[in-house]
Design a protein that fits this description.
2 copies of one chain form a homodimer.
Chain A (H helix, E strand, L loop, with lengths): L2 E6 L10 H12 L5 E5 L17 E4 L2 E4 L1 H11 L10 H33 L2 H15 L3 H6 L1 H8 L4 H6 L13 H16 L10 H15 L8
InterPro entries (chains A, B): Glutathione-S-Trfase_C_sf, Glutathione_S-Trfase_N, GST_UstS-like_C, Thioredoxin-like_sf
Pfam family, one (chains A, B): GST_C_7
Protein name (chains A, B): Glutathione S-transferase
């Protein structure tokens, strides 16, 4: 039985950048589960698995199909209870949702403000047209207008991670002494920024930067194998 | 054996407002533990229990003395494992620290910006002098200058809770189907604002407001027994 992970891909299959896919790639490695990656263009996603989901990641695990990074993590925790835990219990599951919504509401817009034109440039031609149209409608600005705000967005980035920075005074990971899925949630957002824009958003010695570097080293340097932009 | 909780008090002992004390009051009720409250003025705290801590809450539980709201919650979880859990496991403990630092770094400054002159006015005379001197040094502005920014601070408040608002699409409490200590962390911050400033910070129908109202009803309406300012 081959486990298949459908992932988002730009022009270069070797530079996967989706934050949601990175969360799941790290979760699968955490559970020590093998899988085959199926890089997919934005515009090809709706046709996957008979239209199962409009977004990736999608995991096919034998007869089981699961979409959405958080749902996939919950599935892995339930289906593979003998592997290292992704949540550390029911409280950890519930509070990981808060971390996810912090990441989505605070960090994702901050990454978008820095990286959106870089993301566009990494896409295949047919995806670029879809991406420009959908993102410009969503943001109410052209990609070129977003580009002019890039330096200000870089300067505004690090302060948004102040809750994580303060937490790191107490423990090396969101999960405590070792990482949990909550770490992969915020890692996914920063890895997305690193691979697409590669902006230097942290001052030297920033505890958040040190935590991110530790995450890049996890699972035999799985995150680091894709170089920064 | 009487369990003693040293709490912060202004002029009126019936209107305790400290966010950190509220976290612990809710945690003790959650664990179904009785206690006697010892309301203490700011300037009297350093003399408590032979100078055990510069801040309240301080819990005396028989021979055990614990200061700091998070440390007290950890102590209660370990000392009273048969009561309802405050963390829901090790993952919940670790991630509650992230919620605490989100509350301290994002919500506490937002409450301070609204309520600081109200807090000052609730204090006993000797505490008012201490409070003005220490807070004006910390914030680099007079209390009167802070007061002029109050309306803007009220308008800016609700958006800062967007991670919680989005999380509430998935579950009724940070703890999931039922509250955990993480709920009491953010409840403490909002209860502090409610009792000191009583500002209408939420639009009708805001999910965060609904969650706060649910928290006020917990433990036989423990939070609601102190009226809003």
């Amino acid at each position: 039985m081959t486990r298949i992970l459908y992932t988002l891909s730009g022009r270069d299959h070797e530079r996967p950048f989706s934050p949601h896919v990175w969360k799941v790639v790290m979760a699968l490695a955490h559970k020590r589960l093998d899988f085959v990656e199926r890089p997919t263009a934005f515009t090809a996603i709706p046709a996957l698995e008979n239209g199962f989901s409009k977004t990736v990641p999608i995991l096919r695990d034998g007869e089981v199909l699961v979409a959405d990074s958080f749902e996939i993590a919950l599935y892995l925790e339930q289906a593979y209870p003998d592997g290292p835990t992704l949540f550390g219990g029911e409280g950890g599951k519930a509070l990981s949702r808060f971390v996810e919504r912090f990441s989505q509401s605070t960090i994702h817009p901050a990454v978008t403000a820095i990286a959106i034109s870089d993301i566009h440039d990494m896409l295949a031609d047919e995806d670029q047209r879809y991406f420009r149209r959908s993102r410009e409608a969503l943001l109410g600005r052209t990609l070129e207008e977003m580009r002019t705000g890039r330096e200000a967005a870089i300067a505004a980035f690090a302060p948004k991670l102040e809750p994580l920075r303060q937490m790191l005074r107490y423990q090396p990971y969101l999960g405590g002494e070792a990482p949990l899925f909550a770490d992969y949630i915020l890692f996914g957002a920063l890895q997305w920024m690193r691979i697409t824009a590669g902006a230097d958003v942290f001052k030297p010695g920033d505890a958040v930067s040190d935590w991110f570097e530790r995450c890049l080293d996890l699972h035999q340097g799985l995150g680091r194998r894709v170089t920064a932009a």
